[in-house]
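Hey, quick one: can you model this chain's 3D structure?
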Amino acid sequence: LLGCGAVARASLPLLFQLVDFDPKKLTIIDFVDVKDKIAAYLQMGVNFVKETITPENYQKLLSRYVHQGDLILDLSWNIDTCDFLQFCHQ
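Sure thing. Here's the predicted structure for all 90 residues.
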């Protein structure tokens, strides 16, 4: 999950309600430390990474957390989804 602003935090309950998955397989990446706002999800096993994604580092950063068959949910406000489509087709 890219971004953990208001939209992402509002989406988390729906995600867990509608999709059956292991919380330990969810990684949230945001440039702001919002651990206090998602504490309940962290206790469930969700991973949080405080990192700024840039055009220069997104390929290296995502290759650490995204693998074949994974889903990227881009709820960030400052990232061009087309850049990620290029990453996914590599």
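One thing worth noting: The helical segments are 6-18, 39-44, 58-65, 81-88.
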